[in-house]
Amino acid sequence: MNFKNKTAEEKAKLYKIAIILVLLLGVAVKCIKFGVLMDQTQSDEMGCGYDAYCLLHYGTDRYGYSWPVYFINYGGGQNALYTYVCVLTIKLLGYSKFAIRLPALLFSIMGGIVGTLLTGQLTKDTDKKPKAMLLFAILYAVAPYTFMASRFALESNLMFSCSTVFIYFLVRAHREKNNLFYLLAGLFAGITLYTYAIAYIVLPMMLLLSIIYMIRTRQVNFLNVILFVIPLAILATPLILVQYVNYFDKEQFQLGIFTITKFREYRSGEISFNDFFPGIFKGYFSVLCYDGLGYNTNENFFTFYPMSIPFFFYGFYILVKRAIVSIKENSIDGNVLVFFWVIGETLAAGLMTEPNTNRMNGLIFPVMFMTILGIHTLIDKFPEKFVLPSWCTLAAVYGIYFVIFLYSYFTVIAWQRVTTSSMCPEGYHYIQENDTLKEKVVVSNIPPQFFAATALPSPDKVDYEGNYKDDKYAWFNTYDYPTLRDYFYNVGGVAPVYLIYNPTDDDKAVMEENGAKTERFGYSFYLYYWN
Asked: Which of 199, 236, 232 has the alpha carbon at shortest distance from 344?
């Protein structure tokens, strides 16, 4: 039976099945060699994972502070939500790159599912709802950005998924005037504040515009506001106190078991009006194209592939047009709330000194929605005889790009050295389990700030700057001994064990010519030792 001749119920069922299958495909692809590739470990991953480990075992972060509401990390601060979720995954699975990166995958899946549902809400009053939801699911499944961001533990990337859930509940609350949805919207608004500090700019701007709009459409009452504000205020208060402590140079203090932290460096200088319009350009360029950070994006594939850009701009035009019409007519339209979020993100981009893709990840859902909005609106305007060929051509182009991207990721992109260090807890564990090796000094090219994520010491063995301090650890990559050969022949010799990240050919030659035994961990770590 031809699809066109099927009943509306049959079509809806087929669309639902297709959406579920596409989302499952997207999740399955993201799970391939998950936790292993990308091969290197980004510095914030290491800081997040080690803080989570310390919280689990000692009830403090690596500096000995009890349950911080904002982590110090390497001095300038780190958003808290990812680390607290990471405590749970490490508790369940043990300390590993897989456990540390798992929250990224889980939140990405949440963003894909809720983003699909939100797309349905935003197109609910049109006959394009099933098609739009399927298109969003497809874009989530094949996009380079959603794939790469789900594979490493950068805490700020959670803003995409959490802000999408927040907008979803707010759209439904506004449409249905439902108290539960207002409560959930307030809860996820507060949670979003713990994903990335940029939300401190985006959320107030969006809420200010939304409150004015909701009052004009008479879709909000006093009880709705109270239910929204209570969870938001409870969650926002500790973060407001953190800003107070750091902006006014006050001492950090305890709020019950939680620490209101003071940073070693307060990064207020990263916000400025000096380059407002260039900042907006850089922000949108990074979220539509690439940002030069190899763990975020790739310049050959962009965030959503190059062919998505014209569709995005057409969708942007449609969204703005719809929002303006709805505002003028005081009509209920979730697109208006998405438009207000875009305004907040645009303001944040202009204020950032160096926008990049992860800093702009709160814009990911709107960009995806506007892209699929542009696609289906444009193709549906074609003469009927061109519609099916157009869909087939578009599917073929995205499919080919996706296959090429996957091949490139697993053979090239995931192996690029975008960081200078990594972590290898399994290598250090191997040393500690060996009665002969555990008494030896461990020599490594992992700097002291990062080696703690490998050795997992108690917080009292980490100094004020996060350096691992132990007489059984030595870092050879110094000014005096810049290579392993220099260190081996001038200082170390065969007495220590050498845990080396990504050794050079010369490093390997030094070990081989001196008869070292070798163990390999993952793709890039080598342990050299002598009994």
From this structure: 199
pLDDT digits (tens, 9 = 90+) for 138-159: 999 999 999 999 999 999 999 9
Please give the structure tokens belonging to residue 125: 């009053």
Could you tell me if 242 and 115 lie in one domain?
yes
pLDDT of residue 364: 97
Asked if 359 and 453 sit in the same domain, the reply is no
No. of helices (H) and no. of strands (E), the chain: 19, 7
Omega before 38 cis (within 30°)? yes
Tokens of 340: 């207000």
Is residue 420 situated within a structural domain?
Answer: no
Give the chain's residues under pLDDT 70: 1-5, 268-269, 417-420
Residues 517, 445 share a domain: yes
Q: What is the pLDDT of residue 74?
A: 86
Predicted TM-score of the model (pTM): 0.93
Are the CB atoms for 224 and 182 separated by under 8 Å? yes
- The DSSP symbol for 212 reads H
pLDDT tens string 266-318: 876 678 888 899 999 999 999 999 998 888 999 999 999 999 999 999 999 99
Residue 151 is encoded by which pair of tokens?
């594979």
Residues 218 and 259 in one domain: yes
Instruction: Please name the residue that has the structure tokens 């039976």.
Output: 1
Which 8-state DSSP code applies to residue 6? Answer: S
Domain containing 252: what range? 3-415
Q: Are residues 257 and 173 in the same domain?
A: yes
Within a domain: residue 102? yes
In the 8-state DSSP scheme, what is residue 529?
E
- Angle subtended at Cα 202 by Cα 200 and Cα 205, rounded to the nearest 5 degrees: 105
Label residue 211 exposed, middle or buried (CB < 10 Å: 0-12, 13-18, 19+).
middle
The structural domain count of the chain equals 2
Q: Beta strands 525-529 and 497-501: pairing type?
A: antiparallel
Domain boundary among 372, 387, 415: 415
The residue with tokens 């339209």 is 333
Cβ-defined contacts of 486-491 (< 8 Å, 24+): 487/443, 488/514
What's the pLDDT at 3? Answer: 63
What pLDDT sits at residue 2? 65
3-state secondary structure of 77: coil
Residue 33, CA distances (Å) to 45, 275, 362 in order: 18, 41, 27
